[in-house]
Amino acid sequence: MSDWITDFVEKMGYAGIALLMFLENIFPPIPSELIMPLAGYSTGEGKLNLIGALLAGTAGTFAGALFWYAVARWLGEEGLRRWAGRHGRWITLGKQDIDSLDAWFCRHWSWAVPVAHLIPGLRTLISIPAGIFAMPILRFMVLTVLGAGVWNAALVSAGYGLGQEFGAVDRYLGPVSMAIMAVLFLYYLWRVARFKPG
Predict the structure, then answer these.
(1) By C-alpha distance, which of 33, 46, 34, 44 is closest to 8?
(2) CA-CA distance, 64 to 66, in Å (whole number)?
(3) What is the spatial distance between Cα 84 and Cα 89, in angstroms, rounded to a whole number?
(4) Which of 92, 121, 134, 194 has the fewest CB atoms found within 10 Å of its own CB?
(5) What are the mean pLDDT values of the chain's consecutive 10-residue runs (198 residues total)?
(6) What's the CA gap between 77 and 129, in Å, rounded?
(7) Taking the model in full, what pTM does it have?
(8) What is the number of other CB atoms lying within 10 angstroms of the CB of residue 186?
């Protein structure tokens, strides 16, 4: 995967970074842990500007998050309740679970949204409760940019500092990301197996 990402960023520049980071939020297996360090390395080589690379990556992340927010906002809480009534086991939510999730998210969204952008898998998923439970759009936008900006800045800086060894970021963080996503998937399977309607 790394070769085609490298070629794509070298050919497309800032637009390529933004597009890949957008796709990373739509389709999580595309790794930001490779895209943004590569962007950082490119800035060290003088091919890109550091601020431009950071802005492009964060804009792509923001666009992907906004996509899922819009989809979830369209579905809405009532739509989620209908889904839970029909497919509760597969989304592992009953009506009481939705009430609890709504209350928890509304209490904690000020930290949950930015922190989720630091965690693989969750950076895509966090936009869904934000949309479903009608988090104010401006607050969602600010907190998303904050969380995505911090994560992307760390990755760009790592790539810039490591130079040609920028791939080390993905070599070390990649397995951690895969492990976190595997744990999330196993937790989902556990919830499916233990699900009781209600």
Answers:
(1) 34
(2) 5
(3) 8
(4) 194
(5) 72 91 79 80 84 94 93 85 65 66 85 88 83 92 96 89 64 63 69 64
(6) 9
(7) 0.78
(8) 10
